[in-house]
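Saturday, quiet lab. Running sequence design on the structure tokens for the scaffold JK sent over.
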């Protein structure tokens, strides 16, 4: 997460900025969440499966400074970015080794490998500062942004209710972009538990462990 934090800083991301993230379950998701928090930015995970209209609405609601996305959603992200005329950097990761993103997006994997692994400069954060920007739909079906503060994360998390302790391994079979998933994942990290990330239902193959 340190290298990711340095790259975000190099891209001009500052405290209070929002970083949109669109990807299936993978180890980069929690690493990006933590990287954002280290520099005082807000992580804004987007639903992985959306059409162009839904994505455009969510991006408009989130108003990110940077968009980081997995290569598997390039066919959705890139046309939407062109239609909206998004001025912020677009960074693609997870592409096949030896290939590179087209000229519309920068290569996250290459850029992050060039960054320092040391901790970024410390940023003072208040409990009421934003930690995540999550998206939901209102009664009319229009996307809206929900602010989740660091205080919210602490208030919502009760280790006694989930009976999770340091060293536990937790199968995560739902997307790391819903409020429930984000809160639970942050609790797991604080307690020193491991996440086994799946991209399907409870019986799906485990693809990565964090």
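Result came back. Writing it out in full:
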């Amino acid at each position: 997460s340190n290298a990711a934090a340095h790259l975000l800083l190099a891209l001009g991301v500052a405290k209070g900025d929002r970083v949109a993230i669109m990807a299936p379950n993978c180890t980069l998701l929690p690493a990006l969440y933590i990287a954002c928090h280290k520099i005082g930015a807000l992580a804004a995970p987007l639903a992985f499966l959306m059409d162009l209209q839904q994505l455009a609405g969510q991006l408009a609601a989130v108003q990110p400074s940077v968009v980081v996305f997995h290569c598997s959603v390039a066919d959705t992200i890139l046309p939407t970015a062109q239609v909206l005329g998004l001025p912020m950097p677009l960074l693609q990761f997870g592409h096949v080794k030896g290939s590179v993103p087209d000229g519309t997006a920068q290569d996250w994997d290459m850029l992050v490998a060039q960054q320092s692994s040391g901790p970024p400069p410390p940023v003072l954060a208040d409990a009421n500062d934003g930690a995540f920007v999550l998206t939901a739909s209102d009664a009319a079906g229009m996307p809206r942004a929900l602010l989740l503060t660091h205080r919210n994360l602490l208030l919502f998390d009760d280790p006694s209710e989930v009976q999770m302790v340091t060293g536990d391994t937790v199968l995560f079979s739902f997307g790391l972009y819903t409020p429930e998933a984000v809160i639970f994942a942050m609790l797991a990290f604080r307690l020193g538990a491991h996440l086994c990330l799946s991209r399907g239902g409870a019986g799906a193959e485990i693809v990565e462990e964090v």
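Notes for JK: Residues 201-208 have pLDDT under 50 and may be disordered. The two ends are 12 Å apart (CA to CA). Ask whether to fix the surface positions before the next round.
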